Amino acid sequence: MDIFIQQVMNGLVLGSIYALIALGYTMVYGILGIINFAHGEVLMVGALSALSTIAGLKALAPGMPDWLTLVIATLVGMTICGALSYSIERIAYRPLRNAPRLAPLITAIGVSIILQTLAMIIWSRNPLIFPELLPSDPIDVFNTGATITGKEIVIIIMAILVMIGLLILVNRTKLGRAMRATAENPKVAGLMGVNPNFVISATFVIGGALAAVAGVMMATNYGNAHFYMGFIPGLKAFTAAVLGGIGNLKGAMVGGILLGLIEALGAGYIGDLTNDIFGSNYQDVFAFIVLITVLVFRPSGIMGERVADRA
């Protein structure tokens, strides 16, 4: 029983990160109907930018509390990633808005490779240690033998707060109404006074900021950051978005949590059955088994797709 609870805790942490990344995918798809495969690299830039900010703050203000250092670094990463996502949309996607869907997909892959190469040049190709800024002492979960650390609790709480904030933004604000209108029909939304270009750019900026938060959470959880760190999590988050129903915000959240639990439980129990020889290697496999299964049996995902067909 303690193994099950431990894997559930691990899955919730992992799923929280996947859910935040998946939100960026599903927001862009809901508005433009394209998959932004450069989103994982935006996450990577956010983590490495935060790492550089932390190094600078440690040098300039060594007495600053760790939590404040992490907050400032995260805000800097969000700003940089928001600007980067805006630039990607403006330079790489906007000229291809009326092109066949394959064109922006290929462009996204190209942007991904460019960002990886630039990050490798700027930050080096070697993994960089991300400092411990949150408590990592294990805490017993209801006297079950399973443990969770302070930083994992912070990751889960932060993910919940960000996801709630995004739902409020989309459902209760003027910008959110403009997003939903643009998702339904950009031309009609434009006739009603909505500026589709502004809405699309804002969507990319918000998605980039969310990716930065997810990147900092990943780096904090695993203790390192590197130029290739966004590729596999990006693919898994896309799987989570498809699992929940791409184009549906709540579906992306549910899909992310479910995928994290599936990975953790599957790898944990298979690792136990195989004496921990193959468990960690199987973890990545589960995400893509889920993707294939969903695409074959329920392409619309668990919660379906709310985006209407465009004329």
Which terms summarize this structure?
single chain, 311 residues, mainly alpha, two-stranded antiparallel sheet, disordered C terminus, BCAA_transport_permease, L-leucine transmembrane transporter activity, cell inner membrane
Average pLDDT metric: 87
Percentage of residues in DSSP E strands: under 5%
Distance between the termini: 53 Å
How do the strands line up in the largest sheet? 1-4
Please work out how many helical segments DSSP would assign: 11
Q: Give the % helix.
A: over 70%
Which blocks of ≥5 consecutive residues have pLDDT under 50?
Answer: 273-279, 306-311
How can the largest sheet be summarized?
2 strands, antiparallel
> What does the overall shape look like?
globular
Helix/strand-derived class? mainly alpha
Number-wise, the strands total 4
Radius of gyration: 19 Å
Q: What's the helix-strand series?
A: HHHHEEEHHHHEHHH
Main location: membrane
Subcellular location: Cell membrane
Organism: Sheuella amnicola
GO molecular function: L-isoleucine transmembrane transporter activity; L-leucine transmembrane transporter activity; L-phenylalanine transmembrane transporter activity; L-valine transmembrane transporter activity
